Amino acid sequence: MAVPTRRRGAGLLAAATATRPRRAGVITAATLIAVVVLVLADALVLTGRVPRLDVTPTGSGAGRTYLLVASDSRERLDAADRSRYADANQPRGERADLVLLLRAPEDGPARLYSVPRDLYVGEQRKVPHRLGLALADGPQALVDSLCTDVGVGVDHVVVADFDALVGLIDTVGGIPVTVAEPTRDRRAQLDLRGGTQRLDGRQALAWVRSRHPQVLRGGTWVADPAADPTRSTHAAQVLGGVSAALDDPVTVQRALWAAGPSLRRDHGLGLPQLLSMARALRGAAAAGVVTVPAQLEDTTVPFAFVTDATTAALRPLRSPGCATG
Q1: Which of 30, 55, 81, 223 is 20 to 30 Å apart from 156, CA to CA?
Q2: Measuring CA to CA, which residue among 124, 132, 133, 153 is closest to residue 56?
Q3: What is the rounded CA–CA span in Å between residue 321 and residue 224?
Q4: Between 232-245 and 271-287, two packed helices, what is the crossing angle to 10 degrees?
Q5: Do 324 and 148 touch, CB atoms closer than 8 A?
Q6: What DSSP state is assigned to residue 50?
Q7: Comparing C-alpha atoms, which of 80, 84, 81, 82 is closest to residue 92?
Q8: Residue (of 138, 119, 116, 139) closest to 129 by Cα position
Q9: CA 86 to chain centroid
């Protein structure tokens, strides 16, 4: 018996109507999957741009401690920058310009600590040295010295070359800095006018590296009596400025793309760990850097000696497996 034309047409219309939501759902799901795959692929490419370090972290126990090191090495720079930052007093190899410890406890806010690179350690095991010089023997030597000599274990390590900071700052469009008076530091190639100004990457690098700035007073350049020889104050300003600027995924992607090849990381610092570190760093930088105090001796070869205040400041970072007594 033939189906009436009207009933057959109504059935086809109903079938098409029922199929449309399913088809739309399939298209939506496929689109979402494609977006997720692209995002993951992009993230893996970005992570892959960050070279790996041959280093075994000592571990901090509960929570996470990240070692963030600014290297003074010129050897990985291009020819123009090697010439720009040439220093006759700088031997080959690398030392730590800044030693920062990012502590992210299991509960509570993350904090960022700046340890003097000239901290005099290792005397009790008959290998005295300044902490930052340990990097000359490789990242593992610095990690081991922090554990054995300072009592601080770390879970992950990131080493940044000069170019990393320059790339980050330029990518986010510079950072604002305020100085009360014109300020310079010829050795660090720093030259700032008084007032608030936006520093580009090279200016920010000079600001972070400045150790002996001068200010212009009464037409004469004089040593800045308020200068921070540990460089922690300037580092905090720069990190805070970068963290504030990394406020959207596109900027984060561009920044990591620009700085990636000038960073190095331990093998365990993959994409999830990098994201966790970035979240912790953002909160810690906003709260300000904790400068670990020490008795500074600004001689021809500067030294920073451990005091009771040094030990107290490092207490939140002490690790069970790295107790120094």
Answers
A1: 81
A2: 153
A3: 41
A4: 120
A5: yes
A6: S
A7: 82
A8: 119
A9: 24
Q: Which of 230, 226, 165 is nearest to 199 (CA)?
A: 165
Distances (CA, A) of 310 to 95, 96, 167, 291: 22, 19, 33, 10
| Residue where the block lists tokens 């692929």 | 41
DSSP string, 132-180: GGGGGG-HHHHHHHIIIII-B--SEEEEE-HHHHHHHHHHTT-EEEEES
Residue 113 near residue 103 (C-beta atoms within 8 A): yes
Q: What is the pairing mode between strands 214-217 and 289-291? A: unpaired
Please provide residue 192's backbone torsions phi and psi, each rounded to the nearest 5 degrees: -120, 145
Please name the residue ranges forming H helices in the chain: 5-48, 79-84, 139-145, 162-171, 201-209, 232-245, 249-259, 271-287, 308-314
pTM exceeds 0.85: no
Both tokens of 247, joined, read 């406020």
Between CA 69 and CA 135 the distance in angstroms is 9
Comparing 110 with 27, the larger pLDDT belongs to 110
Cα Rg of the chain, angstroms: 26
DSSP 211: S
Q: What is the pLDDT of residues 79-114, one digit of tens each?
A: 555 555 556 555 566 888 889 999 999 888 999 998
| Tokens of residue 87, six digits | 């220093």
The structure tokens listed for 13 are: 């219309």
* 70, burial (CB in 10 Å: exposed 0-12, middle 13-18, buried 19+): buried
